[in-house]
Fungal lipase-type domain-containing protein (Zingiber officinale), 533 residues
Amino acid sequence: MSIDLAMAAAPPRRVPQARNALPNSPLNPLAARHHHAAVHISNVATAPMPTTTLSTASHLANLERLLEKQKQEFPDPPVPAPVKINHDGDHDAPSSSRCNRLLQALNLTSAIFPAGRFSNKPAGAEEMSPRSLTRLRRLLSNSNRASPRGSIAGGWRRFHGAGDWEGLLEPLNDDLRRELVRHGEFVQATYHAFHSTSAPPGRPRHVLLPDRSYRVTRNLFATASIELPPWVDTVAPWVMAAHPTSWIGYVAVCENEREIRRMGRRDIVIALRGTSTCLEWAENFRTELVPLDEEEVETDEQGPSTSVPKVECGFRSLYKTPGLGDTPSLSAAVVEEVKKLRKEYSGEELSITVVGHSLGAALAVLVADEVATLVPPEQAATAVFTFGGPRVGNRAFAERVEKRGVKVLRVVNAHDVVPCVPAAPLRKRDEGYAHVGRELVVDNRSSPYLRPDADPACCHDLEAYLHLVDGFTAAGRPFREDAKRSLARLLSQQGANIKKLYLSQAQELRLKQAAESFGRCNSGQLASPSSTF
């Protein structure tokens, strides 16, 4: 029973401590093991040495048995094999355990907590508390954990615009934030439905709604009437061959009784996407102001007047032009569907929420202006939530929308250029464009994840908007610490605009690929070019 003296003389092996256990804590089994070993060694050292030649070898043998016994009682924690990443991003680790290992290795402490609490030195995953690791896994997971939606039955009219959202925007009310994000996801569903199929633009779409309490009752289409010059057929023949009518959104109604009780009314949603076709782009550049209604055209022909409500020519074209065959215009389809739903749910408390992004935001204002003439505010409150919407018409039009009782809340990124167009002419301010309703300004530079020099596409992207709304508290205040919106979708759609610290680690640990797969398989929406006008 001997022991290698060279091994005994070697420096002791460094034993890792258990996570979250203090080095000398009695709750640390490894520390307890070393403590018992130290006691026995001390006893050996202080015991009177026998005069016989029992020798050092016997003492070492006893010590070896003692350590072997302690090792059986308190085995060392297994040390995982290192994950090797080659230039192609492939791992040597098994795929089943790769995801958990990657998340444990990732360090985003400075992004999860406010700046200034931690040094600039990167910290390993073992230095993060279990609570922060859990938060990190959730933020990078493939699903959103929406904030708990409490009952708003008693005050839903305030969140729907009664009082012009006074006292709800600074700081942003939690219930209003949830309503904004929830309705913004209805718009994301339009991008998903339009871009996830190879069907012609003018065909109906199957919409996967993010809220199962709602049911789609009608598909909506918009038709362009612009006449392109002949030379376009030579330069870009696909533009001339493009179908003038495109699917642009839908009407949905809440049918879940529990959700109706929570909201305090039955909600009708009209959701509209942004620019996605060449002809829609062409319509966007028809920026002259024209009367919206036929009777107003006659008034304007008698002499230009700043009191005549006017809107951008391209927006009016997409809203009023009927499609080929029996396809009605966007205006006619909305009027018909609202009349039908109003009759079907007569006697109930109703609300009409029109929501859109970019071009869809402009069309949403036109829709709400017309819907208000069909359903007075006392019968159904009409509100508009827009994200990155451009100016729609002149001051006379804005005043008419407000007089009809329509409440408009525009969410605007301070660095998004789209809300600044079309620009007012240099002649007279009254003859130019004017925004409608209240404005909630968010700032992509307040996000701890987005680069401060994010490009214009990111500043206008719908997912970036929802990310900023979810983290917004008030102007000049830091990003909300308990924001719950997933970062995976933002990473998949705006990877080039994520701060390098997070992007490089995410790419190295293959979280970018996981985020891209989330965008493809998530049932709520698909990664889509929502950063267009």
